[in-house]
Amino acid sequence: MINVAIDGPAGAGKSTIAKAAAKKLGYIYVDTGALYRTVGVYSIRTKTDYKDPEAVEKTLPHIHVDLKFIGGVQHVFLNGEDVSEEIRLPESSMAASAVSAVPAVRAFLFDLQREIAKKNNCIMDGRDIGTVVLPNADVKIFLTADPEKRAERRYKELLEKGQKVEFQDVLDDLVKRDYDDSHRAVAPLKPAEDSILVNTTTLSLEESIAAIIDTIKENL
Question: Which of 1, 129, 150, 163 suits a disulfide with 158, CB 3.0-4.6 Å?
Answer without folding.
Answer: 163
